[in-house]
Design a protein that fits this description.
By secondary structure, the protein is of the alpha/beta class. The protein contains ten helices and seven strands. Strands 4-3-2-1-5-6-7 form a seven-stranded mixed beta sheet, sandwiched between helices. Strand 6, helix 9 and strand 7 form a beta-alpha-beta unit. The mean pLDDT is 96.
């Protein structure tokens, strides 16, 4: 068995889920600026996520579900998942974002499992709080080691794909590390760099 782990926002999905939410509230520019700095490694991931989620307070949860059902998948997303499965990989998604987004997308793509955070809502509206195991900068690294142990997969048979600083921790535990349309900080730790928005390029690497 082999293991392939993908980031979600700006990797499997073409965009940042939280930015789509912010646009609905008219605060997209403010949230995008924080997201960009966090992905570049300029801000602590946990602090930046807490700040961005707090700005979403009052967004109707029905709107969250609606946005998440229509997120644009990255070019080649379904093909790369199918292609990796044909090559004996278990395909998993780790997201510092939200399960409202990853669950429907990963079901459509045929991804084996998804791990993400949860948005708290009360009386049909976001409260501005979130929780989960993907809140921290080292969360993906911790989770990938647990998955490798569970599945009996070592780093030589592990492929990781991401675009931002919070993917660095999982890059530390894989021999194939793909920086996909990524920030410079992640490219420095990659074995392979893809600068075009087509996930099918990964199939040329494996």
């Amino acid at each position: 068995m082999k293991l392939a782990v993908f980031d979600f926002d700006s990797t499997l999905m073409d965009g940042e889920t939280i930015d789509f939410f912010a646009k609905e509230l008219g605060i997209e520019e403010r949230v995008v600026e924080i997201t960009t700095r966090a992905m570049a490694g300029e801000l602590d991931f946990y602090s930046s996520l807490v700040e961005r989620v707090s700005l979403l307070k009052g967004l109707p949860y029905s709107k969250v579900k609606d946005i998440c059902s229509q997120l644009p998948m990255m070019n080649g997303a379904k093909d790369v998942v199918d292609g990796l499965k044909d090559r004996g990989y278990k395909v998993v998604c780790f997201s510092g974002g939200f399960r409202d987004a990853t669950k429907p997308a990963c079901e459509k793509l045929g991804v084996d499992a998804d791990f993400a955070n949860f948005l708290h809502q009360e009386d049909g509206f976001l409260t501005g709080f979130a929780g989960g195991e993907m809140m921290y900068s080292d969360a993906k690294g911790d989770m990938i080691v647990r998955l490798q142990n569970l599945l009996g997969v070592d780093r030589a048979d592990t492929l990781v794909v991401g675009d931002g600083a919070n993917d660095l921790s999982m890059f530390a535990h894989a021999d194939i590390r793909v920086a996909f349309c990524a920030k410079p900080i992640l490219k420095e730790s990659a074995t392979d760099i893809i600068d075009i928005k087509d996930l099918r390029e990964i199939l040329k690497i494996v």
